[in-house]
Amino acid sequence: MTDKLQLLAERIRAARRLTILTGAGVSAASGVPTFRGQDGLWRHYRAEDLATPEAFGRNPRLVWEWYAWRREKIAGCRPNAAHEVIAAWSQVFPACRVVTQNVDDLHVRAGTRNLTRIHGSLWELSCWDGCAKGAAGWRDERVPLRELPPRCPHCGGLARPAVVWFGEALVGENLRAALEATACDVFLTIGTSAIVYPAAGLVHDARRQGAFTAEINLEATPASGTVDLAVHGGAEVVLPRVAERL
Ligand code: BJW
To answer: Is the minimum distance from the CB of 149 to ligand 1 under 6 angstroms?
Structure first.
């Protein structure tokens, strides 16, 4: 383990361009539930019932109750040591880009620079009907949400969480930024099960372009066999240990 941490630190130190992709595992130590795995959200809920546009169309109140519950839970969570190390690197390395699948905004709260939130944010809403002003979305940090489902302030129609559900396209500029970030010297994929696309393809794109690729995860994932270095451990433990070797 120590050798792997040393190697990773050396690669990061020598890198001109560093890209970090994060998933739910990075927020696990903050108390935010992951999706898959033992206590993951999909153990208790079906993705098709809650995280698709079809589910929202069928039952917006049910979907909103789930999101309102998650907002309340996350409102009480704080960034952990993994968020803090990533934020520090984003501030000191001139060409560090962070791409997150997480919608909890804990990277934002940790002060991360150059951040792309490819699956959106739980703290932003947009107009379900796509009205001209509401389609762009707005910030809404109210906890609890008194009115369920909440309404679009512009047209009075239904509001939706501004997150990317299964079957929906990522926002074009976010996808472009994520793809551009695969042109790097070191690509780190941290705390993601590496099964949801297009995010799961980024590490492979980076490797094809010559990046040194590394994964930090509690367990093996479909990416483990192809990355140059797989480190098994909690991100909140591993990242501070890499940081102290830089
Ligand atoms: C720790 C730890 C600790 C725990 N330390 N580690 C190509 C191939 C196959 C399928 C597809 C494909 N392209 C598209 C698809 C379909 C689909 C897809 O990928 N399906 C797969 C399931 C097969 N993709 C989509 O639908 C995407 N859209 C799309 O591609 O559109 C195309 C299109 C184009 C034009 C027009 C229309 C469409 C959209 C995907 C959106 C994903 N949305 C969600 C919900 C967001 C909102 C919300 O939160 O409610 O995003 S699903 C959920 O999964 C969430 C996450 O961001 C995402 C990834 O999960 P993540 O982060 O990896 O978490 P987990 O729980 O899976 O894993 C946690 C990991 O952490 C584990 O490995 C643990 O071991 C580890 N861990 N503690 C380190 N302390």
So the answer is: no
